[in-house]
Amino acid sequence: MPVYAREGVRHVWLIAPLQRTLEIFTLAADRSWAPIATHRDTASVRATPFQAIELDLAVLWAT
């Protein structure tokens, strides 16, 4: 994620389909990544920076 930090991207979502997780990180003042949330399985989440939209994680894992 160094390229994202260098370019000033403020938030990163890492989606791991096999683990069925969504991890959310924010860029700290020192340009390091700080984890702010981990969501699992079939949770419905409102995740930074898109809190206005509810995301049903079950859709991501559908086969």
From TrEMBL:
Reading the lineage from the top rank, the first entry is Bacteria
In its UniProt entry, the species of origin is given as Sorangium cellulosum (strain So ce56)
Q: Which Pfam families match?
A: Uma2 (PF05685)
Where is each Putative restriction endonuclease domain found?
A: 1-57
Its protein name is Putative restriction endonuclease domain-containing protein
Q: Which InterPro entries match?
A: Nuclease_put_TT1808, Restrct_endonuc-II-like, Uma2
Q: Using the record, list the residue span of the signal peptide; answer none if the entry has no such feature.
A: none
